[in-house]
Amino acid sequence: MSDSLQSAPKALGAMGRMEFIAMMAFLMALNALAIDIMLPGLQEIGASLNVDNENHRQYVVSAYLIGFGVAQLFYGPIADRFGRRTPMIIGLAIYVISSLAVVLVPSFGMLLLLRFIQGIGSAATRVITVSIVRDVYGGRRMAEVMSLIMMVFMVIPVVAPGTGQVIMMFGHWHWIFVFMAAIAVIVGTWMYVRLPETLAAEDVRPFTARVIYDGFRIVLTNRVALCYTIASTFIFGALFGFINSAQQIYVGIYGLGVWFPVAFAGVAIFMALSSFVNAKLVGRFGMRKLSHASLLGFIAINLIWLIVQVLGPQPMPFALFITFFSLAMFQFGWIGSNFNSLAMEPLGHVAGTASSVLGFMGTVGGSLIGAAIGQAYDGTALPMVAGYFVVSIIGLIFVLIGEKGRLFHAHNQPV
To answer: At CA 175, angle to CA 171 and CA 181, rounded to 5?
Structure first.
């Protein structure tokens, strides 16, 4: 795989680079939409379905993430055998149908089941989108494109909570799911009409148990890919922990009320800016230098944040809290896309299976870590802040294992 864009007519048909980036971003954004748009409505959902324990409302997020993570194990091998387009359309159809079914949901347990199924459908947008990008790009160009995709992708956390808030101003929370289904239909139609098949004929892998096992073995025995995936799992666990308890922190501790989406969007803007800066710098400095420096910065910010949280006034002034959080998430923006690209780079010949295994580990592991952080919520931000520091240290340990104890330098791995 070359380090530059393949022949555009062969790889992308009539599509241009910017349309391709936008399409990939909006496909991936369906996942973020399914999480972020309902955060302002968790309290109303709990009240409507008789959920007394406020921490249990977080299961609406966790159930989705577990379905999203588990299903990724299957989409990769399927996409390596049957191509990228058909499995993506099937996944989007599951996403749409399960979203619409929520309108008739009679109980909280049924809602969680449908959220799990919705996650199964949405998993296609994560696995297959990354596989498509890897089909077309390699090396630093892939990291650059993934950063641009993440920048567009981050528009969703900026606007989704506010969109959910507006929907509930004019209707019931069920309409949030109708909105999700409508957006998925629009994006899926765009993909169906414009995106050609990107899986090269020579890269098609038979869909047999032996081939799938060999693909998983290739992924799990690659030290660099495995260690960066585990590191990403813990780092993303912190993000999922915040998402689980965001409504409780912003509304319960700081009393933001309807201003909750504004605060959420402000941090998302920092992450989008981070992805944009990363896209501009990664071609010059490389994925390792940027991600390793940002991981060390992430640890330092989290340590100072934790010290102030423990020793400072309770609760921490909101302006100080949001400053620490924004600085931490700016570093997060550099870590996420680069760690993902570093994990995928050695595995281009099994891109679908690789994306599947890495996505499964990152999402299921991250969601469980995030659930643990979220369920530890005790009326203060301390569990979240402590969680951020702990997972950043664990992430550093696995990066050091993957890089044989040295940061900022590759070990016979292409960048």
So the answer is: 160
> What is the per-residue pLDDT across 191-224, written as a single tens digit (0 to 9) for each?
999 999 888 888 887 877 777 777 778 878 889 8
What does the block give as tokens for 330? Answer: 């700016």
DSSP letter assigned to residue 381: S
Residue 6 lies in a domain: no
Distances (CA, A) of 371 to 110, 170, 333: 20, 31, 21
pLDDT at 415: 38
Write the CA distances from 25 to 64, 69, 277, integer angstroms.
20, 19, 17
Q: Which long-range contacts (CB under 8 A, 24 or more apart) does 53-58 make?
A: 54/248, 54/252, 55/248, 55/374, 55/375, 55/377, 57/247, 58/244, 58/245, 58/371, 58/374, 58/375
Domain that includes residue 170, residue range: 16-402
Asked whether residue 9 is assigned to any structural domain, the reply reads no
301 belongs to a structural domain: yes
Residue 232 has pLDDT above 70, yes or no: yes
Q: What is the number of domains present in the chain?
A: 1
Number of H helices, E strands in the chain: 16, 0
Contact criterion met (CB below 8 Å) for 80 and 353:
yes
Write out the two tokens for 270: 């920092």
Output the pTM of the full model. Answer: 0.78
In whole angstroms, what separates CA 53 from the centre of its chain? 27
Tens of pLDDT, residue by residue over 300-321, are 999 999 999 999 998 999 999 9
